[in-house]
Amino acid sequence: MSTDALFSYLLRLGDTSLVLGQRLAEWVGHSPALEEDLGLANLSLDLVGQARLLLTYAGEVEGKGRDEDALAFLRDAPEFVNLTLAEQLNGDFGRTIVRQFLLDAWQLEVYEGLLQSNDPRLAGIAAKAIKETRYHFRFSSGWVVRLGDGTEESHQRVQAALSDLWRFTTELFVADEVDTALAASGVAPDLTVLQPRWLARVDEVLKEATLARPAPIAYQWHGKRGVHTEHLGHMLAEMQHLQRTYPGAQW
Amino acid sequence: MVAAAIEPLTADRERAVWAVLESVPDPEIPVLSVVDLGIIRHVRWVTDSELHVGITPTYSGCPATEVIRNMVAGALQEAGYTGAVIDEVLSPPWTSDWLTDAGRRKLELFGIAPPQRVVSKPRHLFRAHVVSCPRCGSAASERVSEFGSTPCKAHYRCTECLEPFDYFKCL
User: Fold this and answer.
1) Which residues of B touch A135 (CB under 8 A)?
2) Is CATH 1.20.1260.10 the right assignment for the domain spanning A3-245?
3) Nearest CA among A193, A50, A75 for reference residue A126
4) Which of B92, B126, B151 has its CB closest to that of A42?
5) How large a percentage of chain B has pLDDT more than 70?
6) B63 chain-A contacts, CB cut-off 8 A
C-alpha cells in the first residue's frame, strides 16, 4: 500500500465528516425546536472534531506541510473527496435527518471495521469516533421513526427525501483502487462486507418507521474522486470565505 | 559527615505535579478539576528535567480541549515546571467512567446529575437509566433531550420538583 492511498483514504473520511458537519451547522438557530437545534449543533461539533483528527493525520501522511486548516480551507471543490451524499442540501428537517441517518449508519460500519485496523493511529481515531457516532445514530434513527410513523404529512416528506437521497448511497460501498489497496493491507475494512450490514441496520429502522426502501440504483456518483454536485462549491465559498479573504487569520 | 542532598523520590515528584493539576478547573464545569474529569492520562519525567503530561479530549469536537491544554500548560509554568510537554493521548478513548468519585460528588452538589458507571458494560449503555434529580433526589425524571448546553451533557427534567437539570452523559 502506498502512502498516496492512505492519504486519499484519510482525506475521504475527513472530508465526509467535515462537509456533513458544516451542513449541520447551517441549522444553528433555525431548527424546529431548541432541543433539536442543540442536538444538530452537537452532532456538527463531533463531526468537525473527527474531521480535525483525520485531516491532521492526512496532512502528516502526505508530508508536504499541510495541516488541518490548510486542507479544510485552502482546497477547491474538485480537490474535496467527500461522499456526494454529505454535501446535499439540508432541505427540511426531515430531509436533513434522512441524510444524517444514512451516513450515521455508514460511519458506524466503517468505524467498527477500523477498530481492527493494523494502523494504530487510525484505530485510535475510530475508537474515539464510534462512541460519538452511536449517539448520532440513536438521534437520527429515533427521528426517522417519529417522522416516518408520524403524521401523513411527515411520512410523505421523509419518504420523498429517502427516495430522492437513495441514489447517492450506491457510492458508499463501491470500492475503487484506494479502498481495495487499504483493505488488502489490513488498514481498512472491506466495503463489500460492510454493505449488507449497513443495509440490515437501515432496514430495521425503515421498517419501524413504516418507510419503503427504494430500489437499488446502479448509477454511481463520484464525490470521493472529486466529482461533485453543484452544491459543494457554494458551501465551500461560505465555509472558506474568511481564510481566503484574510489568509492566515487567527481566531 | 554531611549527607548529600537527597533527590526526592520520583513518586513524590509526580504527586507534586498531580497537586498542581488538581488546581486546574474545567472551563465549562468549574467545580471539577481536570483530574476529577479523568482526562489527565499520565505524569512522567522522561529525563530528570523533562516533564510530560498526557491529556485526552472528552469529545473529539469539544471546544474546551484547547483551552484546557493552555490552562494546564500555564499552571505548570506558574508552579515552576518550565518547558513541560503536553502530550495529546487519543487511545484508549476517554469514558465518563473515568470521572473520579470526588468529581461525581462535586457534580451532584453543583446541580448536575453525575454519569452512571455503565460504559464498561456496553450492553447497559443504551438502556433506560434511573437518573436522580440532583436537587430533590427524586428518581422520577424524564429526558428532555439527549443533547444539552455542552457536548458532555444531556437535558433532563424532574417530574417531582419540576426543575430542569443537566445530566452528564455516559460515553
Assistant:
1) 146, 169, 171
2) yes
3) A50
4) B151
5) 89
6) 45
State the pLDDT at residue B11: 83
| Encoded amino acid at A6, one letter | L
> Domain B10-88 maps to which CATH number in 3.40.50.1220, 3.30.300.130, 3.40.50.150, 3.40.50.10490?
3.30.300.130
pLDDT tens by residue, B123-168 = 555 556 688 899 898 989 998 888 887 888 898 999 999 999 999 8
d(Cα A122, Cα A1) in Å, to the nearest integer?
Answer: 15
The three cell numbers locating residue A83 = 461522499
SS3 label, residue A32: coil
Bridge partners, residue B55, by sequence: B40, B88
Give the β-pairing of B85-88 and B51-55.
parallel
CB A120 within 8 A of CB B91: yes
pTM: 0.91
Which residue of B28, B39, B58, B60 to mutate against A (max A Cβ within 10 Å)?
B60
pLDDT tens column, A70-118: 999 999 999 999 999 999 999 999 999 999 999 999 999 999 999 999 9
pLDDT digits (tens, 9 = 90+) for B45-57: 888 889 999 999 9
The full set of domain ranges for chain B reads 10-88, 109-168
* Chain B CA closest to residue A48: B61
Domain layout of chain A by residue ranges: 3-245
